Amino acid sequence: MIDDGIRPQLGIIGGLGPLASADFYFKLTRMTGALRDNEHVPSVILSVPQLPDRTEAILAGHDGPLAPLQAAVSTLNALGVSYIAMPCNTAHHWYDRLAANSPAEIIHIGDAVVAEIRRSLDRGRVANLATRGTLASGFYQDRISPAGFEVCVPADAEFQERVDSAINLVKAGSIAEAAAETERALDLAQMAGADVALLGCTELSVVAASLNDPNGLLVIDSNAALARACLTRLGFATQEARGLPSVSSLPGGDRLPLRLARRAS
Question: What is the model's pTM?
């Protein structure tokens, strides 16, 4: 039994990937309306980077990640947490089966994102920058459309290639390069008519603070949305995240030629 004096309220399934988990915890901390240590959320991070690749499993049609995810949920419940967060969008493919046997509520990142979009817009077209596994799973489409928003899928194959590249670069620790790839994907989303661009992979959340002005495109960070939802459920005051870590901006010339060329075509 865990001592009630140190019992965590929030359990975090981390490591999917590690930088995305660190980004989530940083944002959870910065978004808490606290003035001293003991006003923050008692929490525990269970980092499980050894899980099988979630996208590969979804695209291959198997449930390899499910058993270790269930073990992680059971471990956090044994610690007595009230809520569980998974700062990995693709892992939510198995949400229903994980939530069915969890006494602690697992806060769904998709619900958190829809609530975050609604803070700014009542309607519009949403482009999802996500893994191919998340897109194939369909849980975002199942939430975005009933909420009154239109799913916008850029037809240009380069869009998903840029997203995939950015995700892989974050996993490899190449943050500046990942930010540049993300911005190119945002350009393509905007040219396809999107009003909202969802950073629907928490690897992309890592570069959110490093992105240049998206020229009127509303960019939603799924990690920040999940952090806000966790704080709200737990009854903690929230504030806008300040002082987020970022990489130095890349020279504008690294992106401007692509933007101008595509808008002229």
Answer: 0.92
